[in-house]
Amino acid sequence: DGGITQSPKYLFRKEGQNVTLSCEQNLNHDAMYWYRQDPGQGLRLIYYSQIVNDFQKGDIAEGYSVSREKKESFPLTVTSAQKNPTAFYLCASTNTREQFFGPGTRLTVL
Amino acid sequence: EDQVTQSPEALRLQEGESSSLNCSYTVSGLRGLFWYRQDPGKGPEFLFTLYSAGEEKEKERLKATLTKKESFLHITAPKPEDSATYLCAGSCPPAGNNRKLIWGLGTSLAVNP
Fold it and tell me: How many angstroms separate the CA atoms of B109 and B11, rounded?
């Protein structure tokens, strides 16, 4: 089955730790995106990548980093510089304009 | 400033009670209006794309329509399983290769049996 997988589903981080969220797609999509979703706020774009080895900052990139070494994979690292990382993180991909989403990772800072 | 506004924020319906959700937009050169459904704790599920005023699309009990200023998601004879948050997004003209979406805050729909 074609789709987008994110892991883990739940992630707990201690203050000062870096953590990496995984996003894999087998849809053969070129573009991939990372969003953050908080209660009462719309989806906010963190980073996006149109092709392998290239990515651009979105609206709220501070405290996050990404890589795009393979077409299928777009991992997101939440660094200790992100002061309020507790949120629901969503990965998406597309080859057109409709974006298709993974199931999400809920990150909680302890 | 490009913006997408959804109303109402929350809507509670009785099973079988038809209604509409609104998505108004001020997106320069809109390149597509998208509707998604999101269940609690899950990623958004794509429903519809509308590209031009007057366009309509249907899927089961849902019908999406588009005018030059807003889109409606009509829900006919809803069932409890239609309960979810419905998200609307507008596509901006690409800057470089960025297909950016402007997202609304969503309408939380609850359908009581």
Answer: 5
Q: Is residue B37 a contact partner of residue B11, using CB atoms and an 8 Å limit?
A: no
Handedness of CA B1, B7, B9, B15 (dihedral sign): negative
Tell me the mean pLDDT in the region A14-42. Answer: 93
List the single residue in B32, B36, B106 with the smallest CB-CB distance to A97.
B32
CA distance A64 to chain B (A): 19
d(CA A92, CA A97): 11
pLDDT average, residue stretch B63-89: 97
Confidence of residue B95 (pLDDT cuts 50, 70, 90): low
Mean pLDDT over each residue of chain A, to the nearest integer: 94
Nearest Cβ partner of B103 from A40, A42, A56?
Answer: A42
What DSSP assignment string belongs to B14-68? ETT--EEEEEEEE-TT---EEEEEE-TTS--EEEEEE-STT-EEEETTEEEEE-S
- Return all residues near B96 (Cβ < 8 A) that are at least 6 apart: none
Tell if the CB–CB gap between B46 and A100 is shorter than 8 Å.
yes
A78-107 residue pLDDT tens: 999 898 999 999 999 998 778 999 999 999
Across A16-24, average pLDDT: 95
* Cross-chain residue pair B45–A101, CB shorter than 8 Å: yes
